[in-house]
Amino acid sequence: ASLTLFAKARHAEQRGQNELLEETLDALESVIGNERLIADYFRVMYWNLRATLSANRHQYFDAFEACRNFEQYALRTAPKRRESLVAIARDQSALIAIKIGDYSEAKRKLKSTLQAHTQGQELPGIRLGKLTQWRINMATAMAGSDEIEPARQLLEDAAVELDGLQSVPKNIVAAVDNNLGLVHYLAGDFQQASRLIDRAIENATNVARAEALVNAGWVDVGLNDVESAAQHFEQAATIFRDQLSTDHPRYAETLT
Q1: CA distance 69 to 135
Q2: Residue 168 near residue 129, CB atoms below 8 Å
Q3: 3-state SS assignment for residue 119
Q4: Which of 120, 229, 212, 147 is closest to 173 using CA atoms?
Q5: Stretch (H or E) spanning 132
Q6: Could you tell me if 217 and 236 are in contact, meaning their C-beta atoms sit under 8 angstroms apart?
Q7: Each residue of 171-230: pLDDT tens digit?
C-alpha cells in the first residue's frame, strides 16, 4: 500500500496537484517514522516530496526543513546511493534558496555537490546532463548576485562541451541556450538574448519549450514589444496547461 501511495504522490507532484500531493503525503506520515515498516530510501523520497510541496506553496521555511530531513535520511542510505541522494537534497535546497533570493546560500549548497556531478557512476551522457543542470543552477545563482560575466562564462563552457553530442537530450542543450539568453537579457543585450532564446524554442519540446517561451516574453518586454510578449506568455501557458496541469505553479505564474 505504501508503494502505491508513493507512486500516487510522485504523479501528483509531476502534475502540480498540491492538494492531492498533501493528502497522499499525510496518508504516508504514519509509516514514515516506523523503521521496521519502511526503508530510509522511502523516507528520502517522502521528504523530497514534502520539500517540493512546501516550495510550490511558497512556504520556504518548511521547504528548507524538509530538505534538511531529506539530506539527513540520504546520509543513512547505502553507500552506492548516498552521495547521489545527498547531492539531490542539497541541489533542491539550493533551488529553494534561489527562489527566495538567497544566492549566497544557493552557491554554497551547489559548490558542495559539484564533485558528485563530475564523478558519478552514471553513463557519460547522463552524468553530463546532470552536470549541465548543475551549471545552469549555479549560473542562475551567480546572475542573481550580479555576477553576470562568470554566469555567462559557465554557460558558454557548458554549450561548448555539449556541442555536437548526440548522447545528450536536445532539451538540455536548449536549456543552456535559454539560460544563456536570460543572462544576456540581464546584461541588457536584448538582441543576443533573443537569438539564443529563439534557438532554444526551436530545439526544445514540451515544458522546456514553455520555459524558453517565457524568457522570450521577457525579452519582448525589454524591447517594448508588448504584443509579442503577450503571445509568448500565452503560448507558454498553453504548454504548461497541457503538459502539466492548470494546478501547476508554472501555469499560474505564467498567467500573472
Answers
A1: 25
A2: yes
A3: coil
A4: 212
A5: helix 124-144
A6: yes
A7: 889 999 999 999 999 999 999 999 999 999 999 999 999 999 999 999 999 999 999 999
